[in-house]
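Practice record 12: protein with manganese (II) ion.
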Amino acid sequence: MQRSVHILFTGEEITEGAGVRLLRLFGHDEAPKLDPFLLLDDFRSEVPEDYRRGFPWHPHRGIETITYILKGDVAHEDNLGNQGVISDGDVQWMTAGSGIIHQEMPKGDKNGVMHGFQLWTNLPATSKMMPPRYQGFTAREMPETRPNKGCRIRVIAGTLYGITGPVTGIVTDPLYCDCTLERGGTFQHDTAEGDTVLVYGIDGHGEIGGTRIENRELACLSPGDEIQIKAPYSPFRCLIMTGTPIGEPVAWRGPIVMNTQAELDQAFAEYRNGTFVQR
Ligand code: MN
């Protein structure tokens, strides 16, 4: 059965980190409906004042964060000694696992433009304390495919039309891709009936099962085995995310997401007393 729009999220403008203005499409309160996804932030601005204070040193445990940049630079470094800059079209997939402490500092481009997204996916109990790791890929390493004339897709993670994205070994095995439809174009893909499917409009507007999706709107689709996205009135660009629900209890405070309150208390106690990073 073809999926329709179950819930449409318009998000909330918030200030995060040391003072970064961003649009949070979903987070703590909505996440129970969107398992295995936890959070999606869209930070786009032409004013450095909105983002340059960044996200200074902070911990993560129990999750994976995926940063995908359309425009501008984000400098990052962590307690493991990793350091670098991700830029136009690049992706960084960070598995926090047992714990990392890092900072993420948006710098924008030479005109002050910054545009990127951060998605959080949950880790199941068996993987929450896995060793942390990074996977970083540049725009050039991301394969593109044109399954039909009006549709172009960059695959970040997962497999679509026989094309596999560079990010691999993700515990929840999600599909994450960037889809551009020309006016009149259609995207079609089979999914597992019970998987969570999210479509986030990032340019133009499109349609799913008769419901219009605007730029900066996130559609959570109803269960079904087929996704069909159309662009009947204008070109449409969207991010498509699919994942299999983990179905475990969630205990979440700030940047740490565990299964129980005791695990959460332990994580914050370790962070306070300097034993957070596992050796
Ligand atoms: Mn972070």
